[in-house]
Write a structure and sequence with these properties.
Layout lengths: L1 H12 L24 H41 L4 H39 L7
Helix pairs in contact: 1-2, 1-3, 2-3
């Protein structure tokens, strides 16, 4: 089923093998039945919940990295009389900026995948 497959692909993309059921496989075929089973809806709901938790953790990490960057910028400004220390802090700031950019991109990608999954479920989610 396409929606169930999307949910499982989301988990696989996020590298969450502990959340994936042992028997889970992505089904690329068409669903013959008229709707999703209760178990499929539960699996999708669990996927959505796990993804929301992960996004929340990513938000916290992004805020923490941003705070650390602010502190590093302040340290660099305070080290104006020590060019070697400023270079050292600049290197650290560059690496931290890259980490922050990557974390934001991953978080945004997760949000897009979650939005896609939720919109593909549509009224099916209301039956849960």
């Amino acid at each position: 089923m396409a929606v169930r497959g999307a949910a499982l692909m989301l988990l696989a993309a996020l590298d969450w093998p502990q959340v994936l059921p042992a028997h889970a496989q992505v089904d690329t075929g068409q669903q013959a039945a008229s709707g999703m089973t209760a178990q499929q809806l539960e699996e999708i709901a669990a996927t959505i919940l796990a993804t929301r938790v992960q996004i929340s953790r990513m938000d916290d990490m992004v805020l923490s990295l941003d705070d650390r960057l602010d502190a590093l910028y302040a340290q660099r400004d305070a080290a104006e009389d020590d060019p070697a220390r400023q270079r050292q802090l600049d290197d650290l700031i560059d690496r931290m900026n890259l980490t922050l950019t990557e974390a934001e991109a991953q978080r945004d990608q997760m949000k897009k995948l979650l939005d896609t999954l939720e919109s593909s479920i549509g009224p099916e989610a209301d039956r849960k």
